[in-house]
Write a structure and sequence with these properties.
Length: 963
């Protein structure tokens, strides 16, 4: 996975923050082979992440953090190697090794890394960015030593397993990722175009993280082994272990598993290398997938942790975030050129860049957008900004900080990132202090130093055939598109029996046993009901000074009129735009000044008002939510702006194959006439019909406490919650809500194959699905359990077959999409275009044989995964809020988790096979392919599924049978 690393995964805090405060003390009697220092809390009033840091003889930096609040352990390993460690002609190696490291090592079998951690009830992933690579896992504590075995083998015992076949095989997977994330997406090439022109050819940021496919294809075994030997030694890494651990025992185990790994070559630290431009560079590209014109201006700035980087971070928010922001005011409100605008600074290890991005409305000339940006910047220069704007940013950052350490994994990310890139976990204090110290003068000085009258790289990405919308005088960006060639890739099948050299070890590096099974204690749920019918459920959780709550109102999109789908969506957006007592700008200020985050959204069958806030500001936050709920402003101008923004979004979605597949799949599943056949956001046709009166009518008819539930989790007790809700109980009157009835599409007909043409698509999206039962059905859990070994994650059959064995895709999954009215069983993947037919055959065959191939071992594995994974489901406030939502949505008992555990343990192999036979039959599913018709449609006709029915991107038949 390629990721963008910003401030080490961390959103940092502000002036009022109780910060991490540590002092350094040398520990006497340090064990042989280690140097150690222990960090302890200096001030009892400060919030601390205590840790123990030491270094092994081989140079591996180790940080331990004990957190016994949940029976889980997280490990994060950062190698200080990213694309900046590469050279021209040999790019993409760091990202490639991130992939290779998940395959196998000398003592961990092929595919076991991806398969085993999931089967242990854990999660795992990795990421690469310009300056580093990270691997991370979270597991129940009994699997902790197994993680040490896997991670240490990856660090010290992996390179011998990289054979020529393994190299060629993984190249295909990386190519699939590039096609999915870059080549087959709107604006996917923008980042690469910008970096290659912003930075000189010899600058480490000149090429994209994922690298060049040509470089990767040309890479030899000797090339990659040389790169590995240089950068992947333990002396170039930080290992963080956080969670329910014993510190001394963990040190013993770390020394056992990691201590014998040989020290690598010394790695020179890259020095900061910010760049300047001698002239402004203007580039254009006709994007095959884009439906809207987009303009980006990118200014070179400064490296991370530099004093100016903090001021530039704040500048980005001031220019674009909020109703008073000059870019928003001019481009969105005044000139109505775009639905939104963003500006942000991205400082990395050796350089940085400041981006202004505008994805304009359809048909807008980007010359007009460029003029508007210049006008907005002049407005900023003339009017500046207020102290209140800066205060709002800092208070919000405090809330973000606490959210950033709400899980042991996030704590591990923090500790690892600061240690590896700032020299010590203690740098957190300085980072926070630097944010706290930013002044208005700093921000204005940074603007003058990096933005005002400075050169930049500008990109105009416009829809195919609309080059006239590009900024005048822009030069062609020279994007090279990959051709689709049938049979271009040779299929490589890996064997786990390959012979390779074994590294000597002082002990057998065999798989260690599980530890003692963790005790699982679900959180205590309390429940009440207000006089107006509002259900209230809560969990008190005092680990952090945070509160999260949601008000879920049944209905949402399900109560839309089919010919005006999108009303609920627009209502949710409009309720964010002021109240009867506050303009949109005043409401934004009121929320921002208390560091809260309030968001209103519509879903298929509900509307939700969600909030995240510091516990000290809970009552103020709830008061604002009540005002937004009961006193919507219904401003005509805001309504028109939201409607136009939605129409722009719907147009933009037409160029993304994944989005097209998602929208049309609904129509194929539910059939014409059913409300769920249309997306929550509606279609261009239905949204165009909606008036403000429609939105008001929906609100007055359907927003009622009689169909609502209030869920709250965090540092607040039941009495305080109910006391704060007293006003809402008095003011929000119940009403009867009428529910429509819809006929669902039957599943008795023959399965159909549908095709949507996305010309020159580099990948094909394959989507399959069938309706099953209402969400509250007694078989829901059984179907979720039965699906686990088929498509639930990287350890399941579809992923293992299509990615691990065949290398056709970046991922393949199946899942149950739960809806109260009617749920569905679906499977989906995105494969390289030239194996579309083969992938569809494999997917169908795998589902078809699933019942017969499902064994007693699969049954036991499923039970273990689901029971163990519950240890991860109580950790964060969001996790617990989901528990409360399930209880109220599906009328479950408070102890439903325990009851489901008991139910699962009683299920037999016969029960699983019966569920599979009833609900997972390929003969009851319809199949949709979204890809390049020119190269793939004829090949699909070779399947014994009849001639594919060709649809347009909205799901309308172009030729063939009727729906």
């Amino acid at each position: 996975m390629k990721i963008k690393m910003v401030k080490g995964f961390v959103a940092l805090a502000s002036a009022a923050l109780m910060m991490v405060a540590c002092t350094s003390t040398e520990r006497a009697g340090t064990k042989q082979g280690m140097t150690s220092d222990v960090k302890e809390q200096k001030d009892s009033s400060s919030f601390a992440i205590p840790y123990d840091k030491y270094t092994l003889d081989n140079g591996l930096k180790v940080i331990l953090h004990q957190d016994k609040s949940d029976p889980i352990v997280a490990i994060a390993t950062i190698f200080h190697v990213g694309s900046s460690s590469e050279e021209l002609g040999k790019t993409g190696f760091a990202h490639f090794f991130e992939h290779m490291a998940f395959n196998n090592s000398e003592n961990v079998p092929l595919g076991a890394n991806r398969k085993m951690i999931g089967e242990l009830g854990g999660t795992r992933n990795g990421g690469t960015w310009n300056d580093g690579t990270i691997y991370y896992e979270v597991v129940p504590k009994d699997a902790f030593e197994k993680l040490l075995w896997i991670d240490s083998d990856r660090m010290g015992y992996m390179i011998n397993t990289v054979t020529k076949d393994a190299l060629e095989r993984e190249k295909q997977v990386v190519k699939n990722e590039k096609r999915q994330r870059v080549d087959n997406r709107p604006y996917g090439h923008t980042g690469g175009v910008i970096s290659s022109h912003l930075y000189p050819k010899d600058h480490p940021y000149n090429w994209p993280v994922i690298g060049s496919l040509e470089d990767l294809q040309n890479a030899s075994l000797e090339d990659v082994k040389e790169f590995y030997a240089k950068y992947y030694g333990p002396n170039n890494a930080t290992l963080v272990i956080a969670g329910d651990i014993d510190i001394e025992e963990t040190k013993r185990l770390v020394k056992k598993w990691f201590g014998e790994i040989k020290k690598g070559q010394p790695v020179e630290k890259l020095e900061p290398r910010p760049v300047t431009l001698e002239k402004t560079i203007s580039l254009s590209h006709e994007d095959n997938f884009a439906k809207l014109p987009e303009l980006r201006l990118v200014f070179p700035t400064i490296e991370e942790y530099h004093k100016d980087s903090y001021a530039l971070d704040a500048l980005g928010e001031i220019l674009s975030r909020g109703k008073r922001a000059p870019l928003y005011k001019v481009i969105v409100e005044d000139k109505k050129l775009a639905p939104s605008v963003s500006a942000y600074n991205s400082s990395r290890e050796i350089a940085g860049e400041f981006t202004i991005r505008v994805r304009a409305n359809a048909g807008v000339d980007l010359d007009d957008v460029k003029v508007a940006i210049e006008e907005a910047l002049q407005k900023f220069e003339k009017e500046g900004f207020s102290d209140k704007d800066l205060q709002r940013i800092k208070v919000r950052q405090e809330t973000q900080f606490y959210n950033s350490i709400s899980s042991v994994l996030n704590k591990a990310f923090n500790l690892a990132t600061y240690n590896e890139y700032a020299g010590s976990p203690d740098y957190l204090q300085k980072d926070i202090a630097s944010i706290k110290a930013v002044t208005k003068d700093d921000i204005l000085a940074a603007y003058d130093k990096y933005i005002k009258n400075h050169h930049y790289v500008m990109t105009s990405f416009v829809p195919k055939g609309q080059i006239e919308l590009a900024v005048e005088g822009a030069q062609d960006a020279g994007v090279v598109e990959e051709e689709i060639v049938q049979g271009a890739e040779e299929e490589v099948v890996l064997s786990d029996t390959e012979d390779f050299p074994r590294t000597p070890s002082s002990f057998p590096r065999t798989e260690p046993p599980l530890g003692e099974a963790p005790l699982l204690t679900p959180p205590t749920v309390w429940r009440d009901e207000l006089a107006n019918g509002l259900k209230v459920l809560g969990i008190e959780h005092n680990e952090l000074p945070l509160v999260q709550f949601s008000l879920d109102i049944d209905g949402g999109h399900y109560l839309d009129q089919p010919d005006k789908s999108g009303v609920a969506y627009i209502l949710a957006e409009l309720m964010m735009e002021g109240t009867q007592r506050k303009t949109a700008e005043e409401l934004e200020d009121a929320i921002g000044l208390i560091g809260a985050d309030i968001y209103i959204s519509a879903d298929d069958e509900s509307m939700t008002i969600s909030a995240n806030t510091l516990s000290r500001n809970y009552k103020q936050t709830l008061a604002l939510v009540e005002e937004m709920l009961l006193e919507p402003r219904f401003d005509e101008e805001e309504f028109e702006r939201i409607k136009k923004r939605l129409l722009t979004y719907l147009k933009q979605r037409e160029g993304d194959a994944q989005s097209v597949a998602s929208v049309v799949s609904r129509k194929l599943l539910y059939g014409d006439g059913h409300i769920l056949a249309t997306p929550i956001s509606g279609t261009s046709e239905t949204v165009s019909r909606i008036t403000l009166d429609d939105v008001k009518d929906f609100y007055y008819k359907n927003v009622s406490p009689s169909v609502a539930a209030y869920h709250i989790v965090g540092d607040v007790n039941q009495n305080t919650v109910l006391e704060a809700l007293a006003s809402l109980e008095r003011s929000w009157k119940a009403k009867d809500v009428t529910w429509p009835s819809y006929e669902t599409k039957g599943t008795d007909s023959e399965p159909q194959l549908y095709f949507i043409d996305i010309p020159n698509a580099k990948q094909s999206v394959i989507a399959a699905g069938q309706l099953v039962f209402p969400g509250g059905h007694e078989d829901y859990n059984n179907l979720v359990y039965a699906n686990n070994r088929l498509g639930s994650g990287s350890s399941a059959r579809l992923f293992q077959l299509l990615r691990i064995q065949k290398g056709y895709t970046y991922g393949a999954y199946s899942y149950v999409s739960r809806r109260k009215s009617m749920s569905s069983f679906r499977a989906q993947t995105s494969v390289r275009a030239n194996v579309t037919k083969e992938s569809l055959e494999l997917l169908i065959n795998e589902i078809e044989r699933y019942k017969d191939s499902f064994t007693q071992e699969d049954l036991e594995t499923t039970k273990n995964i689901i029971l163990k994974r519950q240890t991860l489901e109580f950790e964060t406030l969001s996790n617990m809020l989901g528990i409360l939502s399930n209880i109220s949505s599906y009328d479950l008992p408070l102890n439903y988790l325990q009851l489901e555990q008991d139910e699962l343990t009683e299920l037999t192999l016969t029960d699983f096979k019966q569920t599979i036979e009833t609900y997972m039959s390929p003969e009851k599913m319809d199949y949709l392919i979204v890809g390049d018709a020119k190269t793939q449609l004829k090949r699909l006709e070779e399947l014994e599924m009849g001639k594919p029915i060709v649809l347009d991107i909205h799901g309308n038949i172009l030729l063939g049978k009727q729906l």
